[in-house]
Amino acid sequence: MTHPLTAPTTEVRVDHRSAVHLAAETARAVARECGLPGALPDQAALIASELATNLNKHAGDGTLYVQPLPLGHGVEIVAADRGPGMRDPERCPADGCTTAGTLGGGLGAVNRMATHFTIRSADGPGAGTWACARLTPPGERRQEWQGVGTVCLPAEGEEDCGDARAIVDTGSARTAVVLDGLGHGRAAAEAAQAALGAFHTDPDRPLPEVVTRMHRVLRHTRGAAVGLLRLYPDRADYCGIGNIRALALSHEGVSYRLTGQPGVVGWEMPAPRVHGFPLPQGSTAVLHSDGIDARWGLDPPPRLLRLPPPLLSAALAHGHRRVRDDATVLAARSPLRLP
After folding, report:
1. What 3-state DSSP class applies to 132?
2. Which residues contact 182 (CB under 8 A, 6 or more apart)?
3. Taking Cα atoms as reference points, which of 161, 143, 144 lies closest to residue 152?
């Protein structure tokens, strides 16, 4: 099993037309790092170019987020903005649809090239649009992998990200982790990556045992906050130490809010406890570090609650990030079935 999400998400801010070229080269490089064969890296570059061009022409405060897929083998390119939105976003991937007197072929081209393409928008000033294009090799198109999204960003001015995240499907459940190494920079990143390695050693173990393994591994680091979620077909378990928050969302609102126990994994840690809660099909579980402002979950607007996990993660990172801190969000739904 490979675990590609060891590096943070690559962020490309589209504030000038020159960013279109940067977006294309970034997507090509990430696709090659993912091992995509043949012409797929060039297709990833074209997808990023089209999405960035669309942001430059029509949007405000637009950003592309580029990374390996959270589950499966491939590359993901997500566009988020605070532009005027679209009245009928489902029509826009069709060739010829236009909102500004252009040919309107850009999103149609993305829709044709991408393995999966999802777009949502809210109509009105500053409402925003979110689009996710995923590109995979033939045979890597399992539908249950679409129910996962994540964004992981370093603090502004930092080269290393002190956060990390991962999600795996095993024979019994889907298990996700968000990690926040104490502080910022390289030492925090080393702690987060060490905890990530411990997670991947045996992610199917009982959650307290996974945290305890991390505690042993992190004793010679600065330590980390840890949040673990295990998703079953109709419920979820949460086990957290430190400032990782967990929420359960439905179209009606936030049904559960959980915060980790006080402590630091690797230093002084209480006995980990598991908290279970219902998670009906169609609901979304969210884990995030304190680089995402927790106030978003107090009364989120309906348009946010209706977003699928890849777009929800991008919307939270784009709209509620504290730029002076490492910021990670992971959103996931329970699969209807597991391998």
Report:
1. strand
2. 162, 188, 191, 222, 223, 224, 225, 264
3. 161
> In sequence order, what are the residues at sequence separation of 6 or more whose Cβ sits closer than 8 angstroms to the Cβ of residue 39?
none
Report helix angle 40-58 to 106-113, nearest 10.
150
Q: Are 164 and 221 in contact (CB under 8 A)?
A: no
Distance CA 313, CA 64 (A): 13
207-262 pLDDT, tens digit per residue, is 999 999 999 999 999 999 999 999 998 999 999 999 999 999 998 999 999 999 99
Delineate the domains of the chain, giving CATH numbers in brackets: 10-141 (3.30.565.10), 147-332 (3.60.40.10)
Backbone angles phi, psi at 205, to 5 degrees: -70, 160
Closest CA to 154 of 146, 164, 168: 164
Q: Are 260 and 211 in contact (CB under 8 A)?
A: no
Q: For the CA atoms of 314, 320, 324, 326, what is the dihedral angle to 10 degrees?
A: -40
Helix ranges (H only) for 81-175 are 106-113
Phi, psi dihedrals of residue 268, rounded to the nearest 5°: -110, 110
- Can you give 204-222 as a three-state secondary structure string? CCCHHHHHHHHHHHHHHCC
Q: Which amino acid would we find at residue 262?
A: P
pLDDT in tens, 96-123: 454 443 333 578 889 999 999 999 987 6
Looking at residues 203-209, what average pLDDT do you find?
96
Element of type H or E holding 40: helix 40-58
